[in-house]
Amino acid sequence: MTSKIVLLGADRAGEAPHSVPGAESLPPLEESVAYVRALGKPTAAQVLQDARESGRVAIQPRCGVGGHEEMKALLRDLEAQAAPDILTLTIDAHTRLKRFEQALRTLNRDPRDLNGYPLVTHGWQRGRDLNESVAAPLEIRHGSPDARALFDVSVASGITSFEGGGISYNLPYSKAVPIAESLAAWEDVDRVCGRLAELGLIIDRELFGTLTAVLVPPSISLAISVVEAVLAARAGVRCISVAYPQSGHLVQDVAALRTIPLLARRYLPEGVQVHAVFHEFMGVFPRGRGHAEDLIFYGALVARLGGASKLITKTYQEAYGIPDTRANVEGLRLASRANSPLLDFVAVDADRVAEEQQWILAEVADIVEPLLEQPDLKAAVAQALERGTLDIPFSASRYAKSEIIPKRDAEGAIRYLSAGSLPLSRRALRRNDELLRRSEAGGADPGLGSLLADLTGDINYFLTLFGESDREGTS
Amino acid sequence: MQQRKIILGVAASDAHAVANHLIAHALRGIGYTVVNLGTCTPVEEFAEACREHPDAEAVVIGSLNGHIHEDLRDLAATKAEGAIRCPVIVGGNLSVGSKKDPAALERLYRLGVDRIVNDPAALPAVLDELRATRPVAEPLLAVS
Fold first, then answer.
1. Quick one: DSSP state of residue A389?
2. Would the CB atoms of A398 and B38 count as touching at under 8 Å?
3. Among its keywords, does the record have Hydrolase (chain A) (predicted)?
4. Contact at CB, A212 and B17, closer than 8 angstroms
5. What is the CATH number of the domain that holds A214?
6. What ipTM did this prediction achieve?
7. Does the structure show a pLDDT above 80 at A1?
8. What is the pLDDT at residue A8?
């Protein structure tokens, strides 16, 4: 490392807040491409491609702490003890919101007060130091509606995978960022990916289909990802990971994962590599270690059955907050057991999966095709979100109508209790109605009180399943 | 016919979105226009929405994290300034811990909360009642 360390002196804490620290000293793209080439490790895109070709699921943790040495130690420990295929830098909340000065102040006061690694504040030289300290490629995971500064530092750090998108990193995370702004910011990121591809470096761009993580119907998750993927591909992105969150219903989850390559063929140009990524259950997790581990292993099996290229893992400490290294290691090891060649006998009802897939494809088509026909897709997306013809449940942002009410059916699959203003076909709406009515004793329209109770039950699905349901819901 | 309108939101320190969206959904279902300010809404944002929507019948504030007293600290002053003129209804999980404390509810009334509603299903009836008992002369018309 160079001896001049960007931005750590307390004397810089009082600087004008508008400046992006270290931005003036970023190396040119060509230098970063050469750096990655000389780094002696595969890119994230190569790891994903290898996983797909060898028929195994690549494994990746979430991890991020504030201090640089602590972050380096965390990455090294995870690699030494669990050998994940890709490692993560989870970024702190200040950096996500471009509050770089606050990130710096907190870092100087006590790095433990940061809930992730402030990469922009630490600077790209330290990013390279992290990159050089492990053999696995790194991905940046965050939640920024405008990640341009973070992305520039990420590229300069030689990091080859970057999560987010103009819809999926806005609506679940921000209350009042206009969608046109986040779409424009992410288009800038994707254009730089296009330039890097021309220079010979493929950046994996992962889309956050998990959204609010609360009862997200598969066709909503995938429709949002299709729109973001089309925008990314048009801007020049060549490797796209479509992340889908585990609903908990085997057939629905396998069908959703297997639909991702079909959507890619239907809506994306040739030459764009598309990977299915599975997020182990993102909702309310059981507290008992055995129960949590059952759910982790089940999720990993679903990823295998769905043909996912990659799995993002959880830990047995999920119900309690950010896990320690030990739990993270155990979660990775357990998930990787599902890659065992012994488990070839585990199968899923192919006919039921195929049927569910046809419905998911049809619902996604209903939602995205009217948008993809528009000459200005970004403007069409903003307008559709305003009208509710594109929508997500339980949006944090005011820039989605959030008229969708999801609900689990009798089997636990997530359906539309209300599809709001989504342009779903009558057939699709009828099927959702029928599947939900079947799950209700009386079939009458539920009142608000019982709707709240039912939804809380759906959110706490795994607590009930494991007999932990006396705990209060956390939605 | 003029639609009935309410302003809805979750208290400033609270990010619980599910009940908020379900209440908005239910009230829209019975014909209300719902101005939903969503999660993490400070008192001044409720006041701003009241200025933009002087025809709103009530402000409905949800809170599930037990910090409602702190979140509504400025409510009395905001009401005294006239920035919130319609009734304020609060509901949710209103004090930290599993034991509900009557003194905590009393403190909410002193902060300027007009009604406390524990069961969201009771909201429509409470809104009807508040509308039926509101002052005949609309003070809003005189100032706006």
1. S
2. yes
3. no
4. yes
5. 3.20.20.240
6. 0.76
7. no
8. 39
